[in-house]
Amino acid sequence: MGLFDFFKQEDINQGIEEYGSTAGAILLDVRIPQEYQEGHIPESKNIPLQQLNNIVSVVKNKDIPLFVYCYSGVRSRQATGMLQHMEYMKVKNKDRIKRQNKKTIRSEMVNMLVWTSIMTMLLVGGGLSVIIFQWSSIALREDMDFYMESVEKQFTNHLLFWEKSVIYLSENENMNYFFRTGSTEGIEKVMKQGINLFSNQNMVSDTFPIVSDYYVFSKNMEYKGIHFYPETQSADNIKNTRIIDGIKRYRDQDKMFYYRKNGQEIECYFSVYDDDMERMGYCVAIFDMENINKIFSKLEKYQTYYWSIQTNDGTEIGGTGLNGILKDELINLDGEIKKDHKKYLYKKNQDSFGLSTYIIIPKSKLYLDIRPGFQLAWAIAVSMFIAVVVSALYYSRRVTYPLQRIVKKIEQVGTGDFE
């Protein structure tokens, strides 16, 4: 049953169908003869309400089913009561011929209020949705930009710490002496004083460092290393052998930085220069990618995101990849890009040590937090709709009830169409 079916009553056509399917039934038209002659239902018999007492001459058997109708329903209801009082056992009021075309104060009031409530619901729901969408889009875009920028800034700050460490190595007299001569005496202490692996600038949290190991090499390949995690002598020897091999490979290449992956570790090889830009020695920093991942995991609130750390030549040394988007397509430092009919928001940054970071988030993820706002807007609109409908039913009853009493009083006096 639809919403407006609630306000409808039985159609005269339904009564005719019931009459046709009832064996031996008689259809009574209780209007005056003039109305009957102007038009009536086929097979109906005309006995005006004023002459209803004469029905005995037409219908002698009081068990015969009787179906009564008139123009408006007023006379048929009155006739039904009279026939039942005359002990006709099977009388049914089939109401009025023109019910479907006749309008009442109550039906008009209810229709008006219901349609008003529907329009109110659509306007309120639609209006609030537009306002929430516009406001939320701006706020959530700013929030997304903040998250991407804060992640990049945190990673950049860790790299800046190591830039300062390199400056310390190039300016410290003891380190300068080591780079020239290869003498390692007291160098480990000097390194720990100037390069504190336990510094907050190197830690993602209390127990997760960005750089877990640091090595310095003199020109004659003497070296010293410091470590965040304690290691056995055997493990230390294996790592030292690998790092020495990496330094040899780096010296054979004409690059400022040389990166090499080893499981979850990224080895960064670079040179240390004096004020005259003469190479003094070499350094190796080992980055813990598992801990770097923890920095970018803050973006998990957007469910789907892509990030990449790449070298100057475009080699990815960490991240999830850019979902088929090339770094050359990201022209500005931040913005929006369309790829395969999908829109993405991105941010990139040129960091130190020859690295660049890229973060990409599907634009559709921007609207995840807007959904509750839409739901709230439409909940308010639906609530208003229900309130108006209930009010329509209640107040239409209150307004029309006195009129219905007047009609009933008139019915007791005479006949006519008083609705």
Q: What features would you describe in this structure?
A:
- This protein is α+β, with helices and mostly antiparallel strands.
- Helix content is 44%, strand content 22%.
- It is built from ten helices and 16 strands.
- The protein has helices at 12-20, 33-38, 55-58, 74-85, 105-171, 173-181, 187-194, 233-251, 289-296, 371-413; strands at residues 26-29, 45-46, 66-70, 91-96, 203-205, 208-209, 211-218, 223-227, 257-262, 265-273, 279-288, 306-311, 316-319, 334-339, 342-350, 355-362.
- The protein has a five-stranded antiparallel sheet, with helices on both faces. A five-stranded antiparallel sheet has the order 13-12-16-15-14, covered by helices on one side. The protein has a four-stranded parallel sheet with strand order 2-1-3-4, sandwiched between helices.
- Helix 5 packs antiparallel against helix 10.
- Mean pLDDT is 82; it is low at 1-9 and 415-419.
